[in-house]
Amino acid sequence: MGTKLSKLVLVSLVTVMIAFLAAGCGGNSANEGGSSPSSGASASETPAESKAPSGKTEKLVYYGFSEWVADPAFAPVFEELKAKFAEQNPGYEVEFQSDPWGTWETKYKVMFASGNAPDVFIVNNPDFPTFANSGYLLDLGTQLDESAFADYFPGILSMYKWNGKNMALPYTTDARVLWYNKDLFTQAGLDPEKPPTTWSELKQYAEQITQATGGQAAGFGMDLGLKEFPAQSLFTASNGSIIQVDEAGGITPTVNTPEFKDYLQLLADLKPNFEADYATLDHLKLGTLFAQQKVAMVIAGTWVTDQNPDILGASFVGQSLVPKHDENAPDGSFGGGFGIGVSANTKHPEQAVKLAELLTSVDFNARTMSDVPANNASLAVSKFATDPAYGIFMEQIKFARQSQPKTLFYKEIDSAVYDTVSKVLLGGQSVDDGIAELESKIGQITSQ
Fold this sequence. Notes:
The protein is of the alpha+beta class. The strands form six sheets. The protein has a five-stranded mixed sheet. Strands 11-8-12 form a three-stranded antiparallel sheet. Strands 4-5 form a two-stranded antiparallel ribbon. It contains 16 helices and 16 strands. Helices cover about 35% and strands about 15% of the residues. It has helices at about 65-70, 75-90, 100-115, 130-135, 155, 180-185, 200-210, 230-235, 260-270, 285-290, 305, 350-360, 375-380, 390-395, 410-425, 430-445, and strands at about 60-65, 90-100, 120-125, 160, 165, 170, 170-175, 175-180, 245, 250-255, 295-300, 315-320, 335, 340, 370-375, 400. The longest helix has 17 residues, at about 410-425.
């Protein structure tokens, strides 16, 4: 999905990760190469000192969005990070710059294009391919050894790889899980403590619920109105990928596979069990229908309870891992998030990389933003790990990924998949014809 992200935020001690905003941008730079900094250290471990060569204080700019950088809940932690960085890197200091989300989305792209890039910055997942391809990002693999990347969730780390190189450090992430209605399960004669674990079970349960309720409740929710790869989390719970990219950068469509055929056929078979307006619904409206108990099962993030806080703790609400292609398939879910990038043109690459490491370290990662940290160590000390209500999310997030490797054609390919699903579901196109047309279209997109 060109990556539409669900942002997660904790509200009180109960269970709410809310869709979050983002913003930011700043300026400096010109490249001078740099030696490899130490990697994988906790922020509390002081690395070897590296003094500014000029004898004066050198400034590094970090650019993010105001909803985190300038928020009273996080600003004191950023100041703590600033002091720690100065202590570990005598002669260097950090300046925090930010803008509100609506401004930041545009401004940080303009800053890079005009040669006025910040040293370190939040990179939005959908923008990553353009930034990497444009040469805006420092190759972190040349600055850090492999141990620096070892603790990140594999599917999330892969979102910031470009031609096999680690071009950013994962900072935040998210995932979708299966939400299901226990009361409707019971009404349909299903065990409310045994949600579907495979695609075939999902289909069976949806049919039983639709029939048992006389169509008053839809068995499964579809958000086709979102106009991006629908139910992508289902497809990522398989061995499938939409494309493959070889070492030379060549792109091959991989949709003529059992996994993608079964995915399309599953959606086609589920059509009688979708809610009536599935073709126009986005995920927020779908979440509300679930809260109203009009849909028995949806695949969604925590926006369900964000938009409908009155269902927090409701006895009918169940959560489980996304159903898999079959019992032998890997667990999976769609994941998004933000990364921390270092400008390829920073004057101080060594210190900039150290700042990026500090931001993603166990000491600061979970405390400088409201989303879920993208590595095991930071997740373990985050607020999310202490609330049992997030148990399924914390288990699911480790298997989150995206349905295709990052390329410049990510958004166009994602849109092509959406068109195929729409034609199969709304236009009556056969699965085989849909796949043949999609395969051809991906070939046309990637040959441009």
